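Data availability excerpt. The first of two example chains:
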Amino acid sequence: MSFWKQKELSQFSHEEWESLCDGCGKCCLNKLIDDETEQLYYTNAACKLLNTASGGCQKYAQRFIEVPECTRITPENIAELTWLPDSCAYRRIFQGRDLPSWHPLLTGSKTAMIQAGMSVSGKVVCETKVIDVEDHIVLWPLQDCE
């Protein structure tokens, strides 16, 4: 049986926790919150460290130094990170759901995730090239996976 089905979040090793990340890159997208309605909007403007072609962080180990506002996702703060999309493996496991069929832990690669349209790969622009982030609101990051 898979570790995410056998253990509580607090029992995951660092390596197990990190392996839950499917590498979709959606957490690296700039998000907006409407001041009046508190509605969350995703944009296709990505963090300057995100490789827009592959959807992976170019400086993962240094991301908190390079981008101080980058959020560390942990078992301790996952409940507070309501902006994570429903497809996020961290959120799914926290909610008692299983990994989607395309998840790299199940398939062995990111190919199925990209084919399922769950990755930001090829769908985003670097935030440094964006003038007005409000012009970049998109709906596809909210697509649930299964």
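And the second chain:
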Amino acid sequence: MRVKQITNIDGFYKSLEKCRGRVELITDDRDVLNMASKLTQFIGLTTVFSNPDVEAYEIVCYEPDDFQYIKKFLIPVEE
């Protein structure tokens, strides 16, 4: 899903702990961040979520049921 914002980053991170499969954040520069990693979450927080120049990114769940845990925190890009 193409996302322009995460509404509650703490809630988003807590919901990631419920996910059974891999969840990735992919930037427009094609950087792939594995959101299961605490280090990657920190990097994501400081470089992606707090950077006003980043207008959108992709969130990919490899286990389809995992999307139910994180979807309430995501604001999709309207196309």
